[in-house]
Write a structure and sequence with these properties.
Blueprint: H1 3-19, E1 29-40, H2 52-58, E2 62-67, E3 73-78, H3 92-109, E4 113-119, E5 123-130, H4 133-145, H5 155-165, E6 171-176, H6 187-192, E7 194-201, H7 203-206, E8 212-217, E9 224-229, H8 231-254, E10 258-263, H9 268-276
Parallel strand pairs: 3-4, 3-6, 6-7, 7-10
Antiparallel strand pairs: 1-2, 4-5, 8-9
Helix pairs in contact: 1-3, 3-4
């Protein structure tokens, strides 16, 4: 295993298992062990849940209601197109690998199953449903070693394939840099599943300075650009990026989707903890 990848896995596992305390507790009413309330008996309810002592005192049948103990079905979906193969401090792809590992270890810690997919112009299974540490290692290795250069992102295909592929209601983590927000439509997917979006960026991408003569290459289609980046060009770029993010944030809010942005020079664990709380 690559030494850099090994370091990511050790760090992620240590943070999760040493700092995350407790399991998920569902607030759904149903079969379980945590007492929620007493309510009057209604026709068709299980007589085994009748509290005979309270029923005798109140002269009416009352039943105990419990919190449902429901296992989450977690799906981790890193979007690996050409633009994630970039970073001034850490490559975005490496950060996506670390975030995915933290989420997977967190699922195991809480007794939930997780599956993972790699997405760009379609989705492919990365690891099948599991609660085992070796599945996290396999997922991280696949993400870390994935050849993202030359891969284009098709958000419509990703959403359609996830919608048709995932039959059970799931918690889906979509992880990518989300630059082309005009092509993102998560309305249908968010109605069927709970979706969380994690935006991964490098600060240099959002805070360009005047660079003068440059030679740039688009890592999705291989097109190269040679020219001068002046103040006007940079201001126009920043304006377009702000518009992109505004459209993205508004769409996520309308769909009631939780989201967070993590930069390559930040520790993702603390931000993910706040998101999951």
């Amino acid at each position: 295993m690559n030494a850099k990848l090994k370091k990511i896995l050790i760090k992620s596992k240590k943070e999760v298992f040493s700092e995350i305390v407790g399991n998920n507790s569902s607030k759904l009413k149903g079969e379980g062990y945590d007492f929620l309330e007493l309510k009057e008996y209604e026709y068709g309810e299980d007589v085994k849940n009748i509290d005979w002592v309270i029923s005798a005192k109140l002269q009416k049948p009352y039943v105990k209601v419990f919190h449902a103990q429901k296992e989450l079905n977690i799906n981790i979906v890193p979007i690996l197109n050409g633009s994630v193969y970039f970073g001034t401090d850490v490559f975005k792809q490496d950060l996506i690998c670390e975030i995915s590992s933290i989420l997977a270890f967190s699922a195991i810690k809480q007794g939930d199953t997780f599956s993972s997919y790699i997405a760009n112009n379609n989705i492919e299974v990365c690891t099948k449903k599991s609660k085992k540490n070796f599945s996290v290692n396999r997922m991280a290795e696949n993400i870390f070693n994935y050849k993202s250069v030359g891969k284009k992102c098709d958000y419509k295909a990703i959403c359609n394939q996830l919608f048709s592929h995932l039959k059970r209601r799931s918690l889906i983590f979509l992880i990518g840099d989300f630059f082309d927000s005009s092509k993102i439509d998560l309305k249908l997917l968010s109605k069927k599943h709970e979706v969380v979006v994690i935006i991964v960026r490098d600060k240099f991408e959002e805070n360009l300075t005047t660079l003068g003569n440059v030679q740039l290459r688009d890592l999705e289609n291989g097109i190269e650009y040679k020219g001068i980046l002046d103040k006007t060009s940079i201001n126009e770029y920043k304006k377009l990026l702000k518009q992109n993010d505004h459209i993205l944030y508004e769409h996520l809010r309308k769909c009631n989707i939780n989201f967070i942005k993590i930069y390559t020079d930040e520790n993702p664990f603390s931000k993910l903890i706040r998101l999951m709380k």
